[in-house]
Amino acid sequence: MRQSHGNLSDTRGNRLGIGFFKVCMAVFGLRFCRLFVWPVAFFYALFDRKAFEAARPYLQSAFSGNLRWHFLKMIVNHGQAILAAQWLRTGHKLEMRDVNSEIREEMLLEAKNGFIMLMSHVGCWQATISRMEGLNTHVNLLNQDNKNPLYAHMMEGSFIRVISNSKEFGGLLEATEALMKHEVLCVMGDRLPDDVPSHLSIMLRGRKIRVPEAPWHLAARCNTPIFIIFTILHPDSIDFIYMPPIRIDYNVPRKPSPDFFTPYLQIYQEALEKIASDFPYQIFHYQ
What we know:
- With 287 residues, the chain is of the alpha/beta class.
- The protein folds into two domains: 9-89, no CATH class; 95-282, no CATH class.
- It has helices spanning 15-28, 30-34, 37-47, 49-62, 67-89, 101-110, 127-131, 149-152, 172-180, 214-222, 262-278; strands at 95-99, 115-119, 139-143, 160-164, 184-188, 200-204, 207-211, 226-234, 237-242.
- The strands form two sheets. Strands 1-9-8-2-5-3-4 form a seven-stranded mixed sheet. Strands 6-7 form a two-stranded antiparallel ribbon.
- Helix 4 (49-62) packs across helix 5 (67-89).
- Mean pLDDT is 88; it is low at 1-5.
């Protein structure tokens, strides 16, 4: 069985603190509750050295000046995104606006044949799962285990099947089976632990980052398009930014080399770079 690599969130948050925010949202609503994120984020910015060091590589590449201040603003955005995800999960509504809505229409038409939804740790990315509920097909999520049940439940849903990458062969057998059955597979595409040997690379804010190879190999093997989506959080709404589908033409029986994926990765790199430039505090990258 494949070793599971930990998330920073495995050891962040507790029942008392998260329970407070749940009660606060139930009584006062999301907008008022977002104000309480600031003192919590201030505590983490000052005293959570492990989180700061995990965020430092991205902070150094994206910002100049006082990195603690930029870290504070990133943590505030991250906390507010988690609240928004919980708000949606409990049946409440936020305005959801589609950017490049014609691409979403193309995606809906493609759903009957199956596709890969490439997500990133950007904004309220958990809301992407809620957005998939309208598809008339089975939806799967290839995801890293989160040992903290207070966060893990955010990825659950009656319409989604979670495939753990701690399974044999990293869950790729189940993921391949889902795509061959013309189902939708959601995959995170922008982060990978340093001790995972097999990877691809892209540039972000002048720094090379490791990204998982699974979605790209699956797309080539299963002849399945990749739709890239970003979610940008605003005070009362979420923007869903859809990118044109990436179609990988590969008919050779052997495994493609990493260089083969370079032009396709370049598309993702440019899209992620644009998001990081426009919304630098909504990129949640921790080493």
